[in-house]
Amino acid sequence: MKLIFWKMQGLGNDFVVINSLEQKFSLTALQIKKIADRHFGVGCDQLLVLEKARNTTEDFFYRIFNADGCEVGQCGNGARCMGLFICKQNLFPHKKIKLGTLSACVTVNVEEKNNIEVEMGSPVFLPEKIPFLPEKAKNNNIKTSMGELTFFALSMGNPHAVIIVPDVSVIDVDKVGKEVSLHPAFPEQANVIFMELFNPRWVKCRIYERGTAETLACGSGACAAVVAGMQTSLLNGQVLVTLPGGNLEVKWEGGTVYLKGPAEKIFEGIIDDLESFVHIK
After folding, report:
1. What is the DSSP secondary structure assignment for residue 124, as one 8-state letter?
2. 19, 46, 55 from 24: Cα distances, Å
3. Cα–Cα distance between 144 and 66 in angstroms, integer?
4. What confidence category does residue 163 fall into, taking pLDDT thresholds of 50, 70 and 90?
5. Which of 102, 91, 12, 117 is nearest to 48 (CA)?
6. Domain of residue 216, residue span
7. Rounded CA gap, 75 and 70, in Å?
């Protein structure tokens, strides 16, 4: 069985994008891990699957799988890439597209290729909805290999822990991020954002994504960082978020969070024999 896919990226956060509307297939978590493998597969941070809408409030539904094969609820960079994918494939007559995910419905506006806007929905602070267990982390503090760290917990469709640091360049993101992500306070793990403040409208972030590792960019993580900064009165207005892969713009005025940034198609590809490919050891 052949599997047609697109390789796409948003600020270096890269995706394998598959259209299930035009080809029928099923993938196990192990198979997704193989496709995501950068040495023996195609290589990606996440795999995205486009499906038909599941209700009348959305135009399409899409599924998001991390490189470890686990399905997650939200991905800001993935939403921009999926919006561009739909437009380039001429699958929808409008530039404004409502995309359903496991956790929410986001609206993508693909007016400009290099400046795609996503309405990410409202942040969630209730611990049981994140989910976050505050009794496991007194005063939102966690002991790590770099000492005790204070974090801000919230959900942007998936759990996030935002940690303000003086200098993100000296952080061992994979090591410390994994320690925080796997802490018992986060029963479903969490994306961990290390944020350095330059001024009220400019921050620099490095992000550990659960099920992956540090990535060059994370859209939902950038949104979580800005929301946390505004909740603590450290940020205001439209904020420029500088990530290893480039810049994103985030705006939040108390309701939905707006995320703006680029997306790009890299190439189209075909896995000639899906069953043989994913079973190679």
Report:
1. B
2. 9, 20, 21
3. 24
4. very high
5. 102
6. 127-255
7. 13
The predicted model scores a pTM of: 0.91
Q: Which residue has the higher pLDDT, 200 or 273?
A: 200
Q: Residues 241-244: contacts with CB within 8 Å, 24+ apart? A: 241/203, 241/204, 241/205, 242/202, 242/203, 242/204, 242/205, 243/11, 243/204, 243/205, 243/206, 243/207, 243/216, 243/217, 243/218, 244/12, 244/206, 244/214, 244/216, 244/217
- Same domain membership, residue 204 and residue 113: no
Q: Per-residue pLDDT averaged across 63-90, rounded? A: 95
pLDDT in the model for residue 279: 60
Q: Are residues 112 and 145 in the same domain?
A: no
User: Minimal CA–CA distance to 67: which of 21, 26, 13?
Assistant: 13
Are the C-beta atoms of 215 and 45 separated by less than 8 Å? Answer: yes
- CATH of residue 94: 3.10.310.10
**Together in a domain, 69 and 166:** no
Same domain, 50 and 86: yes
The answer to whether residues 225 and 198 belong to one domain is: yes
- Residues known to be catalytic: 75, 218
Provide the terminal-to-terminal Cα distance of the chain, rounded to the nearest Å: 19
State the total domains in the chain.
2
CB 173 within 8 A of CB 204: no
Q: Is residue 26 located within the same domain as residue 102?
A: yes
Please choose, from the candidates 103, 102, 72, the residue with its C-alpha nearest in 3D space to the C-alpha of residue 212: 72
Q: Are residue 39 and residue 64 in the same domain, yes or no?
A: yes
Q: Do 96 and 32 have their domain in common?
A: yes
- Reply yes or no on whether the pLDDT at 122 is more than 80: yes
